[in-house]
Write a structure and sequence with these properties.
The protein is α+β, with helices and mostly antiparallel strands. The chain has helices spanning 14-26, 30-47, 105-114, 130-134, 159-162, 172-182, 202-225, 233-245, 248-261, and strands at residues 56-60, 67-71, 84-88, 120-124, 155-156, 187-190, 194-199. Helix 2 (30-47) runs parallel beside helix 7 and helix 2 packs across helix 9 (248-261).
Length: 264
């Protein structure tokens, strides 16, 4: 079997190549392609029941690392290219033109500020994940598709930072606290709220958001049956690398499904 192409940090470079191949095929300029891909990501996450009327996904700017793309404040399943806005790392829109913004855009700005390896972020309230943020049961990789969870899934407790709040990450200070709790991990839970997943590309971040929810659902079911034989750390590492090699498979399928439902 051919080995995965892995960089010095141990992360597969194949995920990034999915995006690059798509751009070469389409012939689109980098940022136009990223905006189109971001629209697709919104539609996929809605179709996969990771996002509903709430939640959001973003992508780092291709040529300006201190900027990122994200939709105006709206339901993710309805996002079009005209709804995508450019933001700086203070979480402020570059050209709002009267469009509303997500209150929790600081989740994205502060993670991008502290994680130069991250090029895409998903914030969701997917239901199966919520119990693991409010109990002392850690979310752990139960099958090969969730190997990325093998490095641990921290829980962000907003109460420790700001006391009693409406649970939303409404300012840079809260976004920074979440980013620090996430640290170098691919995902973090947010107590009583939801989760955040990150990736080096939109396909990787979306894949992780989908399978974070799947893993939570499976783990909850398995706990009813008895003790769980989780993946070891090495099994998780190897499985994660393999998944990164084949991100184009689910991404292509999910993209086909949402394109068929929403033809141009």
């Amino acid at each position: 079997m051919k080995k995965a192409n892995v960089n010095k940090s141990g992360k597969s470079t194949r995920a990034r190549k999915v995006t690059e191949r798509a751009r070469l095929i389409s012939g689109a300029s980098p940022n136009v392609a990223t905006v189109e891909e971001l629209v697709t990501a919104n539609r996929i996450l809605y179709a996969q029941s990771v996002l509903d009327g709430y939640g959001h996904v973003s992508a780092r700017h291709d040529t300006k690392a201190h900027r990122f793309w994200m939709s105006r404040s709206m339901a993710p399943g309805l996002v079009t290219p005209g709804d995508i806005m450019e933001f700086d790392l203070d979480g402020e829109p570059v050209d709002a033109r009267g469009r509303g913004t997500y209150a929790e855009r600081f989740i994205h700005s502060e993670i991008y500020r502290r994680r130069p390896d991250v090029n895409a972020i998903v914030h969701s309230h997917s239901p199966a994940v919520i119990p693991f943020g409010v109990t002392n049961v850690p979310l752990r990789p139960i099958f090969h598709m969730s190997g990325f969870l093998g490095t641990g899934v921290p829980v962000f407790e907003i109460r420790e930072v700001a006391g009693d709040t409406d649970m939303l990450v409404r300012n840079p200070a809260l976004g920074a606290a979440l980013a620090l709790r996430l640290d170098d991990k691919p995902a973090a839970l947010m107590r009583g709220h939801g989760s955040v997943t990150v990736g080096i590309s939109l396909p990787q971040a979306v894949f992780r958001a989908v399978y974070l929810e799947v893993n939570a659902r499976l783990q909850s079911e398995a706990m009813k049956l008895g003790s769980i034989n989780f993946l070891t750390s090495e099994e998780a590492r190897l499985a994660s690398a393999m998944s990164d090699m084949h991100l184009s498979r689910p991404w292509t399928l999910w993209k086909y499904e949402v394109t068929r439902r929403n033809p141009a």
